[in-house]
Task: structure prediction
Amino acid sequence: MLIKLLVLFTFVPLMELYILIEAGQLIGLGPTILLIIATGIGGAWLARSQGLEIIRRIQEETSRGQMPAVTMIDGALVLIGGLLLLTPGFFTDLLGFSFLAPLTRSLWRKGFSTWLERQVRQGSITVKHL
Result:
């Protein structure tokens, strides 16, 4: 796990720097900076609106006595997407937007749910019932 984290925290920033330098050379410094600012503002708006929608859905589901499991996973994905948008760079912004947009988030949710079920079956994660 330590090796994976080391690779992640080394590779992603280097890739972001490379993409930012290439974008700066392709479209210029000013437009590159404006694009970074625009993705930050757009991402903050999308994270806020999706987060509020998820809170509303959780409240609605719990008031009906339902366990909001799928909605909770959506909430975790929106949180991850928002965190990714805080990091400067086009790759992490694109990844963050994919966690925030409902259409692509549903694909992430399916993958995460499959991974989570596998971890529970293998005993890597235990679930305790209250």
Summary: The radius of gyration is 18 Å. The mean pLDDT is 92. DSSP finds five helices and no strands in the chain. Residues 39-122 form one domain.
